[in-house]
């Protein structure tokens, strides 16, 4: 519950304050968002399965976002940034879909 | 395929199960959870703000460029008008300096004839109007977009056919006016034109088209029309009015011998 409240509060805050990221970080924002989505869906599934733990969620969220951004940053440095971000999006996308399917099964038993 | 299988089999962080299976109380840190959730929400908001703001920024930049082009073109027109005005003043001063004897009048007639040849005077008279356009849907010179050479051939063909004065899209051609490609556009007198190209030719409307067809330019255009699908229509006109070319300048001058 707290997490959902925080999420809504964060979205409202972000829309009101319109924080601007430093230009150097802006290319990594989309990939960080995909990683955050993955962590969110993983957390939601764990919550429905009754195994949710704040600490694991926090760690997985932060590490997901950071690792995704760092992978793409390294890719940019060695010239395969767009390929690596495609790879990250594919892997995270598969995870998001699988988790979403599991959540759907939990919620609707279908 | 092992990697993909692993991604599919373990989409959730395995630590969730491991920690909850551990005996003893589950570690809690609600404040941290709240902070991360707020950060996550802000991340989403920042992302959407960034991408919705990025699109208009590109449009704004484009509009700024268009405005700058329009402003520069207007400045160009103003400068042209100033040249015309100053040229008029120069002419008046010259007439005053020449005085009013027989020799001066002969000189003035000579100057007037030369000015007409150099397209420094507006021209009015019968002639033909040629409208040339790119082939529909063309993307480059290879599939029917007109290039500088086509217009050069058209103009040169008209000169050989007996044209007295020519203007393209309202730009009067002098013997020194360049017709060039710049990027994707044809420039006349260093001004970009956009198709269709209207070539106004003052001359005898009865003989111009036939004589043009016999010229090298006419044969060039036959070839271009048959092979590239570009269009060219010729209509005769009883009354054409072409402006003067204002870019005439002094190229050679000599101090007067006393």
Q: What this model shows, in words?
A:
The complex is a heterodimer of chains A (110) and B (258). Chain A has 4 helices and no strands. Chain A has helices spanning 2-17, 29-49, 54-78, 81-108. The longest helix of chain A is centred in the last third of the chain and has 28 residues, at 81-108. The model of chain A has no long low-confidence stretch (mean pLDDT 86). Chain B has 258 residues and is an alpha+beta fold. Helix content of chain B is 52%, strand content 18%. Chain B is built from 7 helices and 8 strands. The mean pLDDT of chain B is 84. Chain A: One of its GO terms (cellular component) is plasma membrane. Chain A: Belongs to the sbp family.
How many strand units of chain A? 0
H/I helix tally of chain B: 7
Query: What radius of gyration of chain B results from the CA coordinates?
Result: 34 Å
H and E string of chain A = HHHH
What is the straight-line distance between the termini of chain B? 99 Å
User: Helicity level of chain B, as a percent range?
Assistant: 40-55%
Q: Kindly report the oligomeric state of this protein.
A: heterodimer
Q: Order of SSEs of chain B, N→C?
A: HHHHEHEEEEEEHHE
* Unreliable sequence segments of chain B: none
Q: Tell me the β content of chain B.
A: 15-25%
The residue-averaged pLDDT of chain B reads 84
User: What does the overall shape of chain B look like?
Assistant: elongated
Termini separation of chain A: 24 Å
Q: Cα-atom Rg of chain A, whole angstroms?
A: 15 Å
Give the structural class of chain B: alpha+beta
Q: Report the sheet with the most strands of chain A, covering strand number, pairing sense and barrel closure.
A: none
Membrane topology (chain A): Multi-pass membrane protein
Transmembrane segments (chain A): 24-44, 56-74, 80-98
Family (chain A): Belongs to the sbp family.
Keywords (chain A): Cell membrane, Membrane, Transmembrane, Transmembrane helix
